[in-house]
Amino acid sequence: MFDMMKADLKAAMDGDPAARNMLEVFFLYSGYKAVRKYRRAHWFYQHNMKFIARFLSQRARHKTGVEIHPGATIGKGLFIDHGMGVVIGETTVIGDYCLIYQNVTLGGTGKEHGKRHPTLGNHVLVGSGAKVLGPFKVGDNARIAAGAVVLNEIPANCTAVGVPAHIARINGVRPDSLDQIHYSDPVAQELCRMRNEINLLRKEVEKHDSV
């Protein structure tokens, strides 16, 4: 557990250019504090002390504004930037070194039992205000743009944008930038393509009428 907490601390330092030192992150960052408290609650949850686990998670929610169910499975190096409004459901699985911004929901779509929350691969970025709803996989190095609503699986090395989210592939590789908003909108691109095609057809019709 302590190795996980150290990896979380390092991830916060690496993920936030405003972080000045580890002491500041440890005591003042609500996102890091929420993950740290989750680690403790998860230990109790795994040892079948679920009331204590939920008690700790609810205390963390009131103190940090981040609600992480103690039953969630979270890998090392998770950084929740700013933190406020983040909700992570019970059957959520998060891989290593993921970055989550404020007001993100990793939730379900109903009252079904079993696996009902998403699984994030390694090095996944979820932009502010995004909602990922359902028991599907978001692949390694995937990115979910700010405000997106993701209802279906996202392959590795892809970006999901829009409501509902559409996939925009970024050359099959993970970009280094932390930018979460400057992505091409595939719907807008398709509309532009259709407009160009209509203009070409209109010119063909006008040419035919003039003959």
What is the number of helical segments per DSSP (H or I, 4+ residues)? 5
Compute the gyration radius: what is it? 21 Å
Q: Would you report the number of β strands? A: 15
Read across the widest sheet, the strand sequence of neighbours is 3-6-9-12-14-15
The coarse silhouette is: elongated
Mean pLDDT: 87
Q: Which structural class fits the helix and strand makeup?
A: alpha/beta
Order of helices and strands: HHHHEEEEEEEEEEEEEEEH
* Portion in strands: 15-25%
Q: What low-confidence regions span 5 or more consecutive residues with pLDDT below 50? A: none
Helix content: 25-40%
Please give the largest β-sheet: 6 strands, mixed
Distance between the termini: 79 Å
Notes on the structure:
By secondary structure, the chain is α/β, with parallel strands linked by helices. Helix content is 37%, strand content 17%. α1 (2-15) runs antiparallel to α3 and α3 packs antiparallel against α4. It is elongated, with a radius of gyration of 21 Å.
Main features:
17% strand; elongated; 211 residues; alpha/beta; 5 helices
Outline the fold blueprint.
Layout: H1 2-15, H2 22-28, H3 30-46, H4 50-64, E1 67-68, E2 73-74, E3 79-80, E4 87-88, E5 93-94, E6 99-100, E7 105-107, E8 119-120, E9 125-126, E10 131-133, E11 137-138, E12 143-144, E13 149-150, E14 158-161, E15 166-169, H5 186-210
Parallel strand pairs: 1-4, 2-5, 3-6, 4-7, 5-8, 6-9, 7-10, 8-11, 9-12, 10-13, 12-14
Antiparallel strand pairs: 14-15
Quick structural summary:
The chain has 211 residues and is of the alpha/beta class. 37% of the residues lie in helices and 17% in strands.
